[in-house]
Specification:
375 residues, rod-shaped, alpha+beta, 14% strand, 7 strands
């Protein structure tokens, strides 16, 4: 292949016109199962050009046998067990790989079963409305004359990858390996909007933390969980791509594809480093938030303590004056009783004695409370 063709010409192409885009599919699991078949698209290519689009897997198998020099690209979305076993019987897929493709929830990995390469990828997309990251899972079987993609989730949009590859027949003519690298590139390119969205979320979280938003702790926790998933999606890719690059010489990989794969590996490394940085930043933000919350709680406790202290001081003053006023009230109450046999009632010095007694008691109580700093 000539090197004069623009580098990575099939990458980052403009989106196709609306008339060429596939119809949107229902989003709910029940509606997907009822309205959408598992076989999203099956296409046969020869020399980089589409020659047929069979409607069923049986037609795909038959036409591929009729064109032994062609390549089949079969796209599936949450296929049934019978469909995958049909593919396994036709293309001699290993049972362990088929089991993984059926169950999903696998970590990204690259395994070789004879002449078939089995790749698991974790795609991601950023949902602006919910401000969260949605993860999908993609299983790829790559053989001598076929590529089978098994998708679990909404991402990635492989129809766009297929259209871009069909617009570059020279690249598509390189066979299943070129399709694999195109899919890898699409998955990795899909990480860029996620990284931007997460960066915006972290900036907002920092503002909320120092703004004292009480709901920010939950948002930090949820985003941290998403970054753990993001790390699980990106970290293994670095080793996988280096493994593919190590096999360039052994499997005679085209030089142009080698350039593409190195470019994808650079993007993966950069993304992985950004994700690691996000997780570290979220850990630090969570620590800062905990410190600020603790400081705020301490300030509130201090304010409550000060308010309680002031309240206690007021209670002391009120209690002291109440005790002082209670003394003359007690004396007056006693001598206000209407009993005939009270000696002091007819005593000439009784009234001055009662007044002096009240004054002495009140003065004594005042001095005592004053010394105790209650007044």
């Amino acid at each position: 292949m000539s090197d004069r063709r623009p580098r990575a010409a099939w990458r980052r192409q403009p989106e196709p016109p609306a008339a060429q885009r596939p119809e949107p599919q229902p989003s709910g699991p029940a509606s997907e199962a009822a309205d959408r078949p598992s076989v999203v698209q099956a296409t046969l290519y020869r020399d980089g050009r589409k020659v047929a689009s069979p409607a069923t897997l049986a037609d795909t198998f038959r036409q591929l046998r009729e064109h032994p020099d062609g390549m089949a690209w079969i796209g599936l979305h949450r296929p049934t067990e019978s469909e995958l076993h049909s593919l396994a019987g036709e293309f001699d897929l290993h049972e362990l790989a088929v089991e993984d493709a059926l169950e999903a929830h696998q970590r990204p990995k690259l395994e070789r079963y004879g002449d078939t390469l089995f790749v698991v990828l974790r795609a991601a997309r950023y949902l602006d409305a919910q401000e969260e990251v949605d993860f999908g899972e993609l299983h790829i079987f790559v053989g001598r004359d076929f590529v089978i993609t098994v998708r679990h989730g909404a991402a990635p949009d492989l129809s766009a990858v297929r259209l871009r590859m069909e617009e570059d027949p020279d690249l598509l003519a390189l066979g299943p390996e070129a399709v694999l690298y195109a899919i890898l590139d699409a998955v990795v390119d899909g990480y860029a909007p996620v990284v931007s969205g997460v960066q915006n979320d972290i900036d907002e979280i920092e503002t909320e933390v120092f703004g004292g938003d009480p709901a920010v702790s939950r948002r930090i926790y949820e985003l941290s969980r998403e970054m753990v998933e993001f790390q699980r999606a990106t970290r293994p890719l670095v080793g996988m791509l280096h493994g593919l690059m190590a096999g360039f010489a052994k499997y005679g990989t085209d030089e142009e594809l080698q350039r593409y794969l190195r470019d994808v590996a650079d993007h993966v490394t950069h993304t992985s480093e950004r994700v690691d940085g996000f997780r570290q930043a979220l850990t630090e933000i969570l620590t800062v938030n905990a410190t600020l919350v603790t400081q705020q709680q301490n300030a509130e406790m201090r304010a409550l303590a000060e308010a309680g202290f002031e309240q206690n001081e007021e209670i002391k003053k009120i209690s002291s004056w109440a005790a002082i006023l209670f003394a003359p009230t007690l004396v007056g109450t006693i001598y206000g009783m209407n009993f005939d046999n009270m000696p002091e009632l007819h005593w000439a010095g009784g009234y001055p004695f009662a007044v002096v007694l009240m004054a002495v008691v009140c003065t004594s109580l005042y001095v005592v409370f004053k010394r105790k700093d209650w007044l």
